[in-house]
Automatic annotation (TrEMBL):
GO terms for cellular component: cytosol. PROSITE patterns: NUDIX, NUDIX_BOX. One of its GO terms (biological process) is NADP+ catabolic process. NCBIfam families: PRK00241.1. One of its GO terms (molecular function) is metal ion binding. It is an enzyme of class 3 (hydrolase). It comes from the Bacteria. Belongs to the Nudix hydrolase family. NudC subfamily. This is NAD(+) diphosphatase. Residues 174-298 form the Nudix hydrolase domain. Its EC number is 3.6.1.22.
Length: 320
């Protein structure tokens, strides 16, 4: 049972950074690895991750040593990517906004490689933290194999938490991209938008990356103005969520709009609209005629629900 308002909340994994300097922790007989392939997670039929021994023969399809995530009450946990494996099934939908395909690895015929978003609401807090950490780190490794300073292929060090260039000695560390996601309100109305590539009826809160030299508050105001031409005055930070798609940290905020005329940027949005609190209650109940319920486990769903219930400003509602 998930006891937080959204998925991937941290706090139950002991990251044990002091163990990253050697490979001794991987020799622990209780050490297990979560398996990923092209960002997808090996999961059982119930949606929970399958953890395998580090010496499993199928892990020979990895490129790098398994990444050490940390310690759990049941032993060390790692994450491993299998980029050298090719499935017999059609994988054409991988990378699309909605990937409903399921790949079967012959080593685990009773499990499936699934899109993490599809199982995140049912993950325990510890599972969610391990999955989010592992997926984000593996994505970073897959896109940062070569030194940004000299172009040589870098080596994995510190059990996956550093890449070091053997040619120029430059060290590279995992990156996290800051993103703001905001509940923008005006009176008793909430601003929702829909991206150009999103499925029909899917709406959410506006969001965007924080730019260099910018505060969270400034990013909220800029993104809302750019995407909808709505001006925002007061902004307050509410909560945050690690978001491993691919490696972001979502800063959930509330902003008070001082204008209400919407002019969308068609590059960023297909539509944006003000919805009343009554409309939001219908959306959350799944009975709104035009808008689907937000995806469970997301910070957007938590913020929208908290605003509809009048709890957005109660700090005790959020327990990260």
């Amino acid at each position: 049972m998930v006891d937080t308002p959204f998925a991937f909340a941290p706090g139950q994994l002991d990251r044990a950074a002091h163990l990253r300097a050697s490979d001794d922790v991987s020799k622990d007989p209780r050490a297990l690895a979560l398996v990923f392939w092209r960002g997808k997670l090996l999961a059982a039929d119930d949606g929970h991750p399958v953890a395998v021994r580090l010496d499993h023969p199928a892990l020979s399809d990895r490129r790098d040593h398994p990444i050490f995530l940390g310690l759990t009450p049941d032993g060390p946990r790692f994450a491993v990517d299998l980029p050298l494996w090719t499935p017999p099934e059609d994988a054409a939908t991988i990378g699309q906004f909605v990937d409903q395909s399921l790949q079967v690895h012959p080593a685990w015929p009773e499990a499936r490689l699934v899109e993490v978003r599809s199982v995140m609401p049912g993950l325990t807090v510890l599972e969610g933290e391990c999955v989010a950490t592992g997926r984000a780190l593996l994505t970073w490794h897959s896109t940062h194999r070569f030194c940004a300073n000299c172009g040589a292929e870098s080596n994995v060090e510190s059990l996956g938490w550093v890449r070091k260039c053997p040619k120029c000695g430059t060290q590279h560390f995992p990156r996290t991209d800051p993103v703001v996601i905001m509940a923008i309100t005006r009176g008793d109305n909430l601003l929702l938008g829909r991206g150009p590539s999103w499925p029909e009826r899917m709406y959410s809160l506006l969001a965007g990356f924080v730019e260099p030299g910018e505060t969270i508050e400034a990013a909220v105001r800029r993104e809302v103005l750019e995407e909808s031409h709505i001006e925002v005055a007061a902004v307050r930070y509410v909560t945050s969520q690690p978001w491993p798609f691919p490696m972001s940290l979502m800063f959930g905020c509330h902003g008070e709009a001082v204008s209400d005329l919407i002019t969308i940027d068609p590059v960023e949005l297909a539509d944006a609209r003000w919805v009343s609190r009554d409309d939001v209650l219908l959306i959350l109940a799944g009975t709104h005629p035009d808008i689907n319920s937000p995806r469970p486990g997301t910070i957007a769903a938590a913020l929208i629900s908290a605003w509809a219930d009048g709890h957005l400003f109660e700090a005790t509602h959020w327990h990260n």
